[in-house]
Amino acid sequence: WHRFARIYPLHLVGVGLALVAAATLVPEIQTAGRAPLVANVFLVNGWVPDWWQAGNPASWSLVCEAFFYLSFPFLIRPLVRLSDRARGGVVVAALVLVALAPQIAAISPVPMSAASTPLLRLPEFVLGVTLALLMKSGGWMPWKLRYTLPLAVAGYALSEAPPIPGTDIHPGLAATVGSFALLVASLAAADAHGRSTFLARPLWQELGRVSFAFYLVHLLVIASVSSSWPEGHPQLPWRRALLLALAAFAIALAIAWVLHRAVEIPAQKWLLRYDRSRRVSEGTGAAVGGATSGASTAARAASR
């Protein structure tokens, strides 16, 4: 319910903005038919490869996330019971499946896309859950940020690496996912041990809070700003291209900030009024007001 309250209201607004953009500046993103649009509203359009960018093109990843949230209760139980060594095997298997995803999509009798079908993106989610459990049990500690950040840059570069000759197997994708998983884990470990990073600064915290709204509108803004050029692809000298990119960034960030303040926060607060578990926990907290500050701090950290 917390994830629904955080994501769904803004998703609906994003679909509405996409429809306005498609009807005015960016007709090329118009959704063909009602069925894919309704599927996008309910976050299931990614299961049909031809519909993956229906409605708001950026919301394809929300389809995957919705599937992950629904899968989590069924995944976490067996993963918790595994030994740390077995979890290491799950990590390796998840990365192998990431590399195999394009090949699986190519030979699947059911239409699938390695990029957008939620089932083929599930190994990435399992990887993150498993690494978190390894960290929690003390069976594995991430490397420090000074090592994982360069690795993530290298992993990003490898995302476009060619497949194994004669196949559709992409080891570069596994390198990208694995390196970014290590980066996320190292940042989480820094938080858990009280080691401040640049992301703890107020500006980065605020940008993080606005980032979801930014993600939902950034493609719409880029397409709208570029719409006056042939096929929406500006061909400009680098200085003018840089100014155009900065203008698109500033517009998207401004819209995102307004949506975060005017839609996301109020809608989330309104929906969480119906969270019975939260009311119970708040009532319990009031009844045991003498709890130590360390325990309450831990509880707040866990809730985040």
Note down, in words, how this protein is organized:
The structure is a single chain. The chain is mostly helical. It is built from eleven helices and no strands. It has helices spanning 2-23, 34-41, 60-81, 84-107, 118-137, 145-158, 171-192, 202-225, 238-272, 276-287, 293-303. α1 (2-23) runs parallel beside α8 (202-225) and α4 runs antiparallel to α5. The two termini are 14 Å apart. Mean pLDDT is 90; it is low at 286-304.
Name its key features.
304 residues, mainly alpha, 11 helices, globular, disordered C terminus
What is shown here, in short?
This protein has 11 helices and no strands. The chain is mostly helical and 304 residues long.
Radius of gyration computed on alpha carbons: 21 Å
Q: Helices and strands: which structural class?
A: mainly alpha
Shape: globular
Q: Poorly predicted ranges (pLDDT <50, ≥5 residues)?
A: 286-304
- Outline the biggest β-sheet: none
Q: What is the succession of H and E elements? A: HHHHHHHHHHH
Give helix % range: over 70%
Q: Please give the alpha-carbon distance between the first and last residues.
A: 14 Å
Question: Approximately what portion of the residues adopt beta-strand conformation?
Answer: under 5%
Oligomeric form of this entry? Answer: single chain
Q: How large is the count of helical segments?
A: 11
Overall pLDDT, averaged? 90
Number of strands: 0
Write the layout of secondary structure elements.
Layout: H1 2-23, H2 34-41, H3 60-81, H4 84-107, H5 118-137, H6 145-158, H7 171-192, H8 202-225, H9 238-272, H10 276-287, H11 293-303
Helix pairs in contact: 1-8, 1-9, 3-5, 4-5, 4-7, 5-7, 6-7, 8-9
